[in-house]
Amino acid sequence: MSLCLTGLTVRLNQTPPLFPALTLCVGPGEVATVMGPSGVGKSTLLDAVAGLLSPTFILSGQITLNGMDISPLPAEARRIGLMFQDAVLFPHLSVGDNLAFGLSRTVKGRRVRRDTVQEALADAGLPGMYDRDPASLSGGQRSRAALMRTLLADPAALLLDEPFSKLDAGLRDEMRGFTFTHIRKREIPTLMVTHDPEDAEATNGPIITLSEAETSR
């Protein structure tokens, strides 16, 4: 599996591009990091890859996933998982039902689906927590549960937008290791936006810096 961007640019209506044309190929299990100051277009880049751009933006270039051009596809057809700053779990569902919500439809049968979620909870260090209220989890536990919910959807690629920024220093180290280990094990090409150089260094992958000097703004 690979995620490739070829000559990708984004502009707001008829204004100049937010960043220079970007060409990048992220291989299986690799994490590529995008860094740069606020407002340079990092999160907009992720929106473009995910298919979530507002209609006011114009996308140029090509996005391919496993050799297929996904640029014209809607977000729900791209098989791209998203993880943001806040590990948001649905408060009206148990921890296990939160993970089951993200479970791929290819996993069929109530018992099989529950067993799959139980295995994922154990893998996340949350054994026996299927029926727990999400509000009872610690910050690190919520982050692990949110990541496992994303992975259970069987994404072909993953986008991380400042995924560790709301965690304290100790939890950041724990979640970096947990997240990158699962990405490598599942061979998921991943694009991460962060302001933290330690996040980037922990990936052992390529680092792309977007700067104001490189944009027309």
From TrEMBL:
SMART domains given in the database record: AAA
Pfam families xref list: ABC_tran
UniProtKB keywords: ATP-binding, Nucleotide-binding, Transport
InterPro entries reported for this sequence: AAA+_ATPase, ABC_SmlMolc_Importer, ABC_transporter-like_ATP-bd, P-loop_NTPase
Annotated GO MF terms: ATP binding; ATP hydrolysis activity
ABC transporter domain residues: 3-217
Domain of life: Bacteria
Protein name: Putative thiamine transport system ATP-binding protein
Organism: Primorskyibacter flagellatus
Lineage of the species this protein comes from: Bacteria, Pseudomonadati, Pseudomonadota, Alphaproteobacteria, Rhodobacterales
